[in-house]
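hey can u run this one w/ 5-Methyluridine triphosphate bound, need the structure tokens asap thx
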Amino acid sequence: MTNPSLTSEFTISRSHKTNRTSPAHWIWSHTARYWWILLIIIIGATGNASLAAMVPIYIGEAFDAITAALPQTERLLPLTLLIIGSQLLRALLQLGRNFGADLIAQKLERNIRDELYISLLGKSMTFHNIQPVGDTMARATNDVREINFMYSPGVNLVVGSFLFMVMPFYFAPRYHISLLLVPTLFTITYFIALWEYLHSLSPVTDAVRSAFGKLNTRLAEALDGIETVKGAAQEEAEVSFFNKQARRVRDTFVKQGDLEARFVPMLLYGLALGGGLLHALILYSQGEIKIGAVIAYVGLLEMLQFPTFASTFAYTQVSLGMSSARRILELLNSETLLDQNADGYAANMRGEVCFRSTAFAYNPGDDVLNDISFTVSPGQTVAIVGQTGAGKTSLVKLLNRTYETTEGEVLVDGVNVHDWNLASLRQQISIIEQDIFLFSDSIAENIAFGKPNASQEEIIAAAKAAQAHGFITSFEEGYETTLGERGVTLSGGQRQRLALARAFLTDPRILVLDDSTSAIDSATEDHIQRAIAAAAKGRTTFLITHRLSQIRWADLIVVLKNGHIAAIGNHDQLMKTSEAYRRIFSE
Ligand code: M5T
Ligand code: MG
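ok here u go:
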């Protein structure tokens, strides 16, 4: 039954479940399964930082060796070799760190994309009608990518540079305990500044991601409606509209850059270096430490440059990643009113349909259909007629729960469609839409869409039954002809027959043909007529059509007017009783 807390109507099971309570939890539930990669990153980063600290330490020792009262030049060679050796090892560990970060970033990108795609496929039509395609595309592509960047370079640099910051604490006390002073002051102010920075950054990175989504929405709509744009000669207006959105994206980026530029730690680093040198020199003049210690200490403080320098863009990257995670999670968690009802009624359909005081509204309170009641016996053909906007398309979409009734019920074989197993219901009802959608694929693959394992013979038989074989074989590549996006290379009538071939192949118990707006020449008309008659045989068929010849031989004719039934019966009855029906025929 209807369950408002569900997030998809179809679920495909995956062994790994993620925690979708918050962006941080969610990212972590994706990350934690790769704990071994995290371990590589941490070992690599720790090794890299401590070996980087070896350089100033050995240089300090070398200084002491040559400035001693009796210069010990023989110590220089071993120290040099130590530096070279430690840096070679460091390169190896650094490789591990970078490799680990990139590996986990790619794995996460793949898994998140997978999770999002499955979730999008499972969402109801109500969700897809409301959610703009361009924005969904932006989330599914760029936002997922941002999570990749969040790990590599983002987290990689955050972890790496954090360990650089730890090193002065570890090594400075070996020269003099008071040398901890400067690193301590630096670290405290650094984290305060970082906290402030992240707080002011997060709304800005949210704005960056959302402006980008809006830009994409507009782009997708302009391309989708390109024919309309060109037809109305609105190219220029579209360009200026697009520019406006692009400017908005730019402005948010500038704001982000502005924040980055004001990041304080750069200044802090300069102060730390100067202050540290002064402190060490004072200790030296008091005879507390040797000159080599001064050099080593300043070298250790120089390690703070990495966290200072990396932090601006590393944390921006993490912040952008979290904003993206929020947006992806929003899609994953958005609710849908339908559920697949896996334990529902599943059986071979006979094809009896019964509407019982059914009402339906796209928006609550604004009824599009009202008080619809009629029954169709298995195998009958029903013609649904009525003016444009009367609710014909909406009516048939209640059959397979593309939309949910708001009042009353729709029964198939005496079972409420809510109580059917959704997959079983939809597999046995085939709706050929008003606006036939073809994939950019071969003709054969388009026909076999509902039955991917169909053999070539089956496909050809279906095409023949749908009167499509003739025009398909007239193409040079026959069934292997690739259709352009949305099948633009086919005429309306050809598409319709392709869609009929699809229906023949899946052999549904209930066939719905929404044909109300297509205008077709009479030669094609004849083909289609025959194809439809063949398709209607042996199954319950709903025809939404303006073709009088088809309406005439229907077993039942439903005349819709403003969402309610104005008249119902067969042709002879309606000619006698219904003024509205007679008017259709006199037009
Ligand atoms: C019936 C409204 C539409 C019309 C009424 C698809 C859709 C329609 N409507 C919405 O409010 N939201 C929607 O998403 O519903 O529309 P229909 O069922 O599509 O009418 P039809 O099939 O009889 O018309 P046509 O032109 O296909 O012959 O008021 O505004
Ligand atoms: Mg319609």
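The chain has a mean pLDDT of 88. anyway lmk if its weird
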